[in-house]
From TrEMBL:
This is Beta-galactosidase. Pfam families: Glyco_hydro_42, Glyco_hydro_42M. It is an enzyme of class 3 (hydrolase). It catalyses: Hydrolysis of terminal non-reducing beta-D-galactose residues in beta-D-galactosides.
């Protein structure tokens, strides 16, 4: 990719007439759009009849864009197989958890594991890569569109067979599977792998191991499909390959991006959910370290479909989103979509232009983003995002465990975003790191909501602690095995001995009347909790009332030069938020975290490092203005004036 910041939009030229295309390109240039994403739903335009593939239109479009100074991200169109693939072939289609077979239409209606789908997807992708892979102006590839956004685990016959083969490869013998899953419960015992069902309709609940392992199987298979597609493209093109994913989809993003070239995501968070926007930036920055990520989709104003809509962004907010994204490590900030759809199920969705070619309510914000891109470009290109000293571990495998065992309908993304918000509110710069990420350089590590914690992860965390870092474990961490069963040696497995505790009880704390005290704050305790008896640790959080007032809910223990902190429960309500933020601040102080500031609520800072200098990009995200103390002499890059103490970010300003 070129040495520039990208400002882009999804464009569907196959849907429009020649005069519209001419006008679109003209107005893209006027709006500062320098990259277009095309092709993702165009399989029927490329191959209207099976075996008759013609890509000349898309070749001409890419050449035309390039002539006008606009680069292209080309997509594979495999999210929308044509009617010739679907009609009369229910065996090729996705089957949901209620065993309903999807028909043609919408998208993601095919089973991506079906061998005929894989064959035809490979054929069309190879044709696209051969025709387009070496064209000037092609700067990247996007595989498919939003894997598992509308569907999750397929229950078709093809998937059943592949699932049983996957189990045999994993367990080797059915006896090992039975032992691992505890299948004597409710007479679930299997004599052959071909007897193991999918977690489809059942009178009550499926065995936890069956359901969690099926999710893992599904995540592995969609990643496998992505790797197959990427390998085909790489035979004909040197442009990097990505996929537009999300924390919300039924994928393992860490596994998915492992063999792709850069990470990208889609987000439609509103101003009510600023942390939900920011956490994506701090996470996707770390899926491919050293490589900038892309925001492949966001709305210029609002998201909508035929059945719903979100509130539009206030004036100035899109600019703040873009500034924060570029500063936090994004190479591109792109919209869905350029011209409003005239048909289909997303006709009302926000766009840059209306279906009749006039600027929409979001258009002035797009012009502001382009101004911001130009203002920031030199600074961003001459620096890199600074590695944080504080890390929050994220795991899509944990998401699968909590989908199987949601307690009172807990939502993994919601839990993680809420915990992230607490870190954000303390003014600490943070990384959100995948479960398998290297941990070197972190002084403070948080590992909440990770029901199964691998021995390999524990080893890396302990190595970090021995060097002097603080590791905060929990809540809801460590209480399950890899197969989603209960430990039989201790409640939290090997964590207990390392942390110097015994988890005497694990139980739901909500409504029990338990008040937790710690760090000068008190709050009701909630969620499924662990309470501790000390076996070498020190009690930091004590309890009052409830069922276990004599036990601890926060403990700490020295280990090497550092410390392990066990967080057994989650304080609730506004008092709980203050308590957790006090905990974060306390241990950040103790760990000597310096990459932090006293930013006021609603304002963030994004530190970046250059050759012998540092840059802080300060962005107000809530429209109320904000301030931050700069601890050393600095120069404002916009005004070129010295700023030695306190910097104020005005409303929706950077």
């Amino acid at each position: 990719m070129g040495k520039k910041l990208y400002h882009g939009a999804a464009w569907y030229p196959e849907l429009w007439s020649e005069n519209v295309l001419e006008e679109d390109i003209k107005q893209m240039k006027e709006a500062g759009i320098n990259v277009a994403r095309i092709g993702e739903f165009a399989w029927s335009s490329m191959e209207p009849h099976e075996g008759r593939i013609d890509l000349s239109f898309f070749v001409q479009i890419i050449e035309r864009l390039y002539e006008n100074g606009i680069d292209t991200v080309m997509c594979t169109p495999t999210a929308t197989p044509p009617i010739w693939f679907s009609h009369g072939h229910p065996e090729r289609m996705y089957v949901d958890a209620e065993l309903r077979t999807m028909g043609h239409g919408s998208r993601q209606h095919a089973c991506t594991n079906h061998p005929y789908f894989r064959e035809k997807a490979a054929v069309v992708t190879e044709h696209i890569a051969r025709a387009i892979g070496s064209l000037p102006g092609l700067i990247g590839w996007q595989l498919d569109n939003e894997f598992k956004a509308h569907v999750s685990e397929c229950m078709c016959r093809t998937c059943l067979t592949q699932w049983q083969q996957w189990l045999e490869q994993r367990y080797t013998t059915v006896e090992r599977l039975n032992e691992a899953w505890g299948t004597q419960i409710w007479s679930e015992y299997y004599h052959r792998f071909d007897q193991v069902p999918q977690p489809g309709p059942a009178p009550f609940l499926h065995n936890s191991s069956l359901k969690t392992m099926y999710q893992q199987f599904s995540m592995e298979k969609i990643a496998e499909f992505a790797y197959e597609q990427a390998a085909i493209i790489r035979r004909y093109s040197s442009a990097p390959v990505t996929h537009n994913s999300s924390m919300a989809f039924s994928v393992d993003n860490e596994r998915l991006f492992r063999s792709l070239d850069f990470a990208s995501f889609d987000t439609y968070a509103t101003t009510d959910h600023v942390p939900a926007f920011l956490i994506n930036n701090d996470l996707f920055r770390n899926f491919k370290r050293g490589r900038d990520y892309w925001i492949m989709e966001t709305s210029p104003s609002f998201a909508a479909s035929l059945t719903s809509y979100a509130k539009p962004h206030p004036s100035g907010y899109l600019r703040a989103e873009a500034a924060a994204s570029y500063a936090l490590g994004a190479e591109a900030f792109c919209y869905w979509l350029w011209r409003q759809q005239r048909a289909g199920c997303e006709q009302p969705h926000g766009s840059v232009l209306s279906a009749w070619g006039k600027p929409t309510v979001g258009y002035p914000s797009v012009l502001e983003v382009e101004q911001t891109r130009q203002e920031l470009e030199n600074v961003i290109l001459s620096t890199r995002p600074a590695q944080a000293e504080t890390a929050l571990t994220y795991s899509d495998r944990a998401k699968a465990f909590l989908k199987t065992e949601p307690h009172r309908k807990v939502n993994h993304r919601g839990l993680m975003t809420d915990f992230y918000t607490r870190i954000l509110n303390t003014g600490i710069h943070r990384d959100v790191v995948p479960e398998g990420s290297e941990l070197d350089g972190y002084k403070l590590l948080f590992t909440p909501f990770l029901p199964y914690i691998t021995a390999e992860y524990i080893d890396r965390a302990i190595e970090l602690v021995e060097k002097g870092s603080i590791w905060i474990v929990g809540p809801l961490t460590g209480g399950r095995t890899e197969e989603h069963t209960i430990h039989t040696d201790s409640a939290l497995g090997s964590l207990e001995q390392l942390a110097g505790v015994e988890a005497v009880y694990t139980f739901p704390m909500d409504g029990s009347g338990t008040i937790g005290h710690a760090f000068g704050h008190s709050a009701p305790l909630s969620l499924w909790s662990s309470v501790f008896m000390l076996e070498g640790a020190t009690a930091v959080g004590t309890m009052e009332g409830g069922l276990t007032p004599e036990l601890a809910w926060i403990t700490e223990k020295r280990h090497g030069k550092g410390k392990i902190v066990m967080l057994g429960s989650m304080p609730a309500g506004e008092d709980g938020q203050r308590l957790i933020e006090a905990l974060i601040t306390h241990y950040a102080d103790e760990a000597r975290v310096t990459l932090r500031s006293d930013v006021t609520p609603g304002t963030i800072f994004a530190p970046r490092s250059g050759d012998g200098f540092e840059v802080w990009v300060i962005v107000n995200m809530d429209g109320n203005g904000g301030s931050v103390t700069i601890t050393q002499a600095a120069v404002d890059q916009f005004t070129k004036e010295p700023d030695r103490c306190r910097h104020t970010a005005g409303t929706w300003q950077i």
